[in-house]
């Protein structure tokens, strides 16, 4: 008797479809991260909140978690460029960045101490060239920009919350003999860091709110965040940050809507009167701090202001001896004592519950423009001036929903450079902001198209 085999359905008789017909597994999180490197730019911003502990401010190099994230961003961007996955820089961006590199290199080669200046050269290239260029390549669309701006807001809320708690509970840094100065997680030795982070977050929140849908919950939440951040900024008692934030906010609002800027100014003035005058929210300290900006003589002079002016005079004296290429990166601290006026203090006072009382040495002129002039000379001033002017004019010229954020944050940096320079934990945030501004101001030909 013959054996009859069962009939095999045609759909089963076909060759086994593995693996082509099977659905491909989704890319892991690491793969998604590689496809959107703006996450690393956002991580750079957020990682500045990681406490670094009290550090030796005289050390040549400080590497933080945010610095490591920025270097990872640079490495990933370089890899994407080699593989053709990222858009390159435009001609204008290449020119201004190359000018900064050449100026820093010339100052390093002709430095009074080339070995010490070499570490300064690396830092300058990181902050003013490599990280900004990487941010330009990482910001591929408006989603990337919102991601980075959102990181600024989140970092500001973290630091602002800590700073507000320090003021209200009297656990901050010393100010007029009382532990009420808000410094966030940065400590008394990095006294201006929190105010910078909060300022960036306030401006980013305003920019995102103006771009959000009218009447939506996101718009209301972002305006509320900006309003909250005004309080820790006030009790940071940082005059330079106050002025820079005011200028940045005005520029941002004018770029977005002139009528809105006028209404916001009226509301801000009314809120200041109520909070400071009516409720006394840090009013005495804030009023005293504002009035001290011009107090450089007389019995009630503010030594922090007079010291700053003396440091500027010291930088000018150093430049007079090294007019073309400067004395070299990181040379100001070596030449300070031989060029400073006799009345310049040996350091500024710093105190909190962690470090006790310390004298922090004055190692820079607390003015970025004078720092460049003294350490990189006229060559450096031309190079950095070209960079800043190109960014400013580009942000003013281009219109669009990203323009308010770019002009507001850039305006903050350029004004703050009148009262401060690079240095400290949050320096890397300056490079991210320059990258955001350059992405908008100096797009490549493909981006314009």
Automatic annotation (TrEMBL):
Keywords: Ligase, Membrane, Transmembrane, Transmembrane helix. It comes from the Bacteria. This is O-antigen ligase family protein. Signal peptide: none annotated. It is found in: Membrane. GO terms for molecular function: ligase activity. Residues 225-384 form the O-antigen ligase-related domain. The chain crosses the membrane at residues 59-82, 89-109, 121-140, 147-168, 188-210, 217-235, 265-286, 368-395, 426-442. InterPro entries: O-antigen_ligase-rel_domated (IPR007016), WaaL-like (IPR051533). Its main location: membrane. It is a multi-pass membrane protein.
